[in-house]
Amino acid sequence: QVQLVESGGGLVQPGGSLRLSCTVSGTGSIFMLYAMAWYRQAPGKQRELVASITSSGSTNYADSVKGRFTISRDNAKNTVYLQMNSLKPEDTAVYYCNVQRSNFWGQGTQVTVSS
């Protein structure tokens, strides 16, 4: 059974940083073959793609986070990360980890950017 567990969310002031982690279990070593992504959903808004990373390490970002967020992966730990810098109040949302082109999602982690 594939499970995704996110961590690292919290309350941070504008301009601050957070690093989200998503550990995937139930896939064994084939995790390295999966493209992974981070999505977010703010109150009253649709879920949107924030960043994605392919099995070979190619990355893609939403325009709103380019230059501020970095997605990475550690295949030895079956973990994908989202480093978020220069956070803004509009980054406030629940952040979800996803195995791309699947219905495997994490439970989400809340990120709140507020002074």
- How would you write the strand order of the largest sheet? 2-10-9-4-5-6
Question: Kindly, what is the distance between the CA atoms of the first and last residues, rounded to a whole number of angstroms?
Answer: 40 Å
The gyration radius over C-alpha positions equals 13 Å
Largest sheet: 6 strands, mixed
Structural class: mainly beta
How much strand?
Answer: over 45%
What oligomerization state is this entry in?
Answer: single chain
Based on DSSP secondary structure assignment, what is the total number of beta strands?
A: 10
In short:
The protein contains no helices and 10 strands. The protein has 115 residues and is an all-beta fold. The protein has a 6-stranded mixed sheet, with no helix packed on it.
Q: Would you write up a description of this structure?
A:
The protein starts with a strand and ends with a strand. It is mainly beta. It has strands at 3-7, 10-12, 18-25, 36-41, 48-53, 59-61, 69-74, 79-84, 93-99, 109-113. The mean pLDDT is 96. A hairpin with a 4-residue loop joins β7 and β8.
Q: How is the secondary structure organized here?
A:
Blueprint: E1 3-7, E2 10-12, E3 18-25, E4 36-41, E5 48-53, E6 59-61, E7 69-74, E8 79-84, E9 93-99, E10 109-113
Parallel strand pairs: 2-10
Antiparallel strand pairs: 1-3, 3-8, 4-5, 4-9, 5-6, 7-8, 9-10
What are the salient characteristics of this protein?
single chain; 115 residues; mainly beta; four-stranded antiparallel β-sheet; 10 strands; 48% strand
